[in-house]
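Data card: per-record layout.
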Amino acid sequence: MTPQSLLAAMLPLVADLARQIPPSERYRRLLDAVRRLLPADAVALLRLDGDALVPLAVDGLAPDTLGRRFLVGQHPRLQALLQAQGPLRFAPDCGLPDPYDGLVEHVHGHLPVHDCMGCALRVQDRPWGLMTLDALALSRFDGVDMVALQSLADLAAATVAAAERMDDLALRAEDAQRRAEQYRRAAGSTPARRLVGRSAAHRALLREIALVGPSDLTVLVGGETGVGKELVVQALHAASPRAGRPLVSLNCAALPETLVESELFGHVRGAFSGAVAERQGKFELADGGTLFLDEVGELPLAVQAKLLRVLQNGQLQRLGSDREHRVDVRLVAATNRDLAAEVRAGRFRADLYHRLGAYPLQVPPLRERGRDVLLLAGAFLEEQRASLGLGNVRLDAEAQQALLAHAWPGNVRELEHVLARAALRALGRHAQRPRVLSVGAGDLGLAAPPQALAVAVAPMPALLPDATVPLRQRVQAFERQAIEQALAAHAGNWAAAARALAVDRANLVRLARRLGLAVPARNGRRAPTG
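The structure for this 530-residue chain is written out next.
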């Protein structure tokens, strides 16, 4: 690295500091410049988040690295870099475990002895994170000027500072998240999982959270089962001015109808059989904070009326009491039901539906989030690594492709369970516990990709070749046959058939009803055809 090459690489980065560039692109350009200047096979930029380092950008490492959180206390090399006063290079015979063991691209299994160095980044005189460099060959960094590396580190710090200044929404969300983490630690609870993803659908969701989070609007979070609605609610609370106050949750579907009212509003002694003492409800426990009602569509109609009254005037009465209590609560509700259809069917109050839906927020299913599945996989595999006591857990290339090809009807929750089982299966194939556990496609236990199933539906014989048949009848006959074949290919599962045909399940049912096909009723029996 000559002074001329250093200057040539740094000038564009300095020019970028004054430009409106997305943080991901800003970080990519930074790592690209580092790779051009230094003989590194892998470079990473990690931000310090509490007691963990979170990768913001990587070059030369597996894509699932971006979904991981490296707990500083579990990775002594990263800890040493954070504590060093300047750039630090590790000796070839250093016995400290490498955090990227099994994650460097084109290296299968255990990472051999190699050249490794890095430096801490400081923004406004506080630790911000790290930049790490790895070379697969020994002595690769012998000619590196540490003063020049420190200059790169200073420029990297200026780059991340510019990214933070220009991303005001991210700053506010990060500050709110930090305050929420402080409250959770003070309450003695374990830190919540974070929202992970970089897809367009996920970024749109984060923008919605950043927009509505600081307000006091009631939010109705919708989405399929397993998409992570509870994490979205936690992010809404963390982004609100109430982040330092409690977030109280109630699963409306997990309680008998007779106890729902008591759980929400509390009761006095003797209000019902077994009420031996006065008890606060969830609304009072959440006073000043946020109340999350999960599966709100399961609330009985009588309780819905009382809930509406609390939302309208902030006053409630404990069960069995005539005295009113005033509460200041921001309500967030979630459901995987179509509440508009429930209103039409008379099972949900229209006025409560409109009150809850002041700001509807739809969480995208995993199948619409593209390569986010690999980032989420990295986060879950990091949890498995810690729970199984392994050096690292990685996905081989075939496993990554299998995850990307799967339709994920159970969404993020299904992915979590699949990877937990896969890690155990992969570990069971080894007589001795390996340092790096490689998970293959066979360990995942996934069915054939949805594309393969769709192929079985696609081939169709020529339908109604008679030119005298009206076009509408030909189209209806084709649609009817396509639906019947999709249902046959998926053993009568309407949700799976809808995915294979790339339509919404509710739209598929409505179309089938118009075409005269038997459709499922709410109670699971076939509804009569029209």
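Known properties of this structure: The first helix runs from residue 3 to 16. The CA atoms of residues 9 and 33 lie 6 Å apart.

See the next section for split statistics.
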